[in-house]
Amino acid sequence: MIKRFLFVSCMLYTGFVQAQDKPQAFTGALIYPISGPAIPGGVLVVHKGKIVSVGAAGSSIPAGAEVIDVTGKVIMPGLVDSHSHLGGPQGGDASAALNPDARAMDAVNPTSDGFKKALAGGITTINIMPGSGHLMSGQTIYVKMREGKIIEDILITNEKGVYGGLKMANGTNPMRTTPGVFPGTRAKSAAMVRELFIKAQEYKKKIEKAGTDSSKLPERDLRMESLVEVLNGKRVVHFHTHKANDILTAIRLGKEFGFKPVLHHVSEGWKVADEIAAAGIASSIITIDAPGGKLEAMQVSLTTGAALEKAGAAVGFHTDDGITDSRFFLRSAALMARAGMSKEKALEGLTLAGAKMLDLGSRIGSLQKGKDADFIILNGDPFSIYTRVEQTWVEGIKRWDISRPADKAFLFGGYDVYSPIRGEFHQHVDEEQ
Amino acid sequence: MKKILNIFLLLPLAFAVQAQIAIKAEMIYPVSGAPIRNGIVLVKNGKIESIGTNITIPSSYKIYETKVLTPGLVDARSVVGLSGALNIPIDQDQLEKSTPIQPDLRAIDAYNPEETLVKVIRDYGVTTIHTGHGVGALVSGQTMIAKTKTGTVETVTVQPFSMLAMTIGPSVSSNFTSPGTKAKQIAMIRTQLIKAQGYLKKQSNKDSSKTLATDMKLDALVKLLQGEVKALVTANSSVDIMSAIRLAKEFNFKLVLNGAAEAYRLIPEIKNANAEIILHATMARNGGDMVNMTMESASLLTKAGIAVSIETGYEGYVPKTRILIFEAAEAMAFGLSFEEALKAVTLNPARLLGIADKVGSIEPGKDADLVFFNGDPFEYLSKVCGVMIDGVMVKEGCQ
Description:
Structural class of chain A: alpha/beta
Number of strands of chain B: 16
Radius of gyration of chain A: 22 Å
Oligomer: heterodimer
Strand content of chain B: 15-25%
Structural class of chain B: alpha/beta
Helix content of chain B: 25-40%
Largest sheet of chain A: 8 strands, mixed
Largest interface: A-B, 38 and 42 residues
Order of helices and strands of chain B: HEEEEEHEEHEEHHHEHEHEHEHHHEEE
Shape of chain B: globular
Helix content of chain A: 25-40%
Shape of chain A: globular
Distance between the termini of chain B: 41 Å
């Protein structure tokens, strides 16, 4: 009897998480497609996990579609968090400062409770990064907030054919007191990175020289393979950097080796906004309420978003969860708007700009025909404290709904809602940011 | 020449303090009463002179205008001023780790009114802070109350010794070899309090030859036993909150529960013990002994009839302090009414701290501590456009 009951539940469950067979049309909401102007009372049609159409009020709805009236609500793309530590990514250990071979995918727990925070905050795609305590702490992973049992269930492959970038860091975090293994100065940090990239350039040459003759290929080297992907423009470098001089060092290294890093945190980005823009480099900002806590963040400013926007540089946001909580991700953009960023660019920073930083801009980040049906439904203005995310949809599946008590609990918290047993919470907060 | 210069320098200062000011606001939230639309507040000699709609502004008064006016915010519990933004040993004075019980440590000997973070929170509308020794020792030291204006400790202090900062929980065992367990934590506190009881008895002896030599630690604990100061006990889990209540009952001291992440589970027990609550920041990280926190706590406790004060608390990393108005805003977003949320960062903490005769609401006779907003104080996009402490504008311009 128990067995039978279980079987039935499993069947029901499977049925529940599958995308609807028939199209679904959401009508009446103010739609922010991001790729174009806002549509009052618009119509969003999704089917089989993809967006079928986004149109003005009265747009045609496919025959047989389920019509969901969301009049008075707001619909925007699912949020893209370009830098988070949910799921326990770990990364390199204390044996080396450069770990381009370490993969977050070998560490992250796809069933972690932490992902419920992301869903409750309206986040549908995350770049999960190892920490910043290394010059290179490892390979990051791009994941969708699908229901996952094994890591492959949630990975998402980008336009370049990879499902992650490479995490790098400069400044004080990777500087440690183990001479010979970790750098003790900024110049040594850059020298160690350059040395490894020069090695990778030579490795790359050998591969190219071998051509189709596999017998001439160099011996496999996991660290080199990952860096060759960077040199080939396939794997994006996500570069943790705070101070203006460190930001410029990250840009300089990228220039020398022919890659464009995405700059992360950029606490002093407001000082070098023009230089960042001139290099054509995107920045992913963390919104921090107050300065300090570490020397590099003494001059962090909410005006960085506005400064970068004004200079013409691409701006995205991230939670760096657990530095900030995924449930408050919308707030990150709101505070930057408070300090002068345009609402338009602030919304783009939460969505399309972040997607582009992961080379996923053709698939997610805006509401356009053919893109993944990742969207959120809000009960008001995304920039208001009075607004709540009510539903989070991932590839046409409603993954989070505030009207379901169990889901609501992940937003509010409470007794035994989050447990260290079921979550892989980031343990080394001191090392991050 | 020197004399002339001195007089010259003093004059503007004297004017600044003595200035008589009128503030016209589209909306005034006095907190002590109903909101006033298109109201006027008069400020004279650093105090609120009057508040209302039917007020004639004397011609000598300097006029300010604002959309929204609230009382200066009161942060119920912070370590700012002892804990600095740099987060390096020279500016971290909130926790002395040599021994776990140090009630003799005075906050006034460490508070730095010029600290960067004091300016940061002041610019966001905090005019009064209850600050001092931090979380992480059984008794980490004393707390104090200060205005966030600049000056010397002597000129900014409202109360030099407000409470004794105590902690029950895992942070204590991570900072000290002993106590290493919950039971040992309580045993060590009880031992000291029993010692203080004995000391108090001996010191009360009229025959001075029979009194003991002065013991600064025990003197501070005696103040607790005699009800002169309250115990500010940081306890988050249900077990630790109950330990705090049990201790307060055994030694008959006034208990303020701080942090109190699971207080919502113990409402009858807390009411029964007459314990007051300073609640953790709404957006606090839900790790460690705060894993069971809910962002609805302020709302649940308020609805149960417990006055809630919201704190910014202690931050060990980035950001190094929280911003009180942001934390109150989220408490509102999670169920607290607008009025109660504003009260939780003004009048409630003022009452809890015993300074409601001076701050916490806009009422005649109270200190002229005011915050100017250009819209709903809790909205993300609203800005703080002016801060006044004791009748002096300490910040102008919107942020």
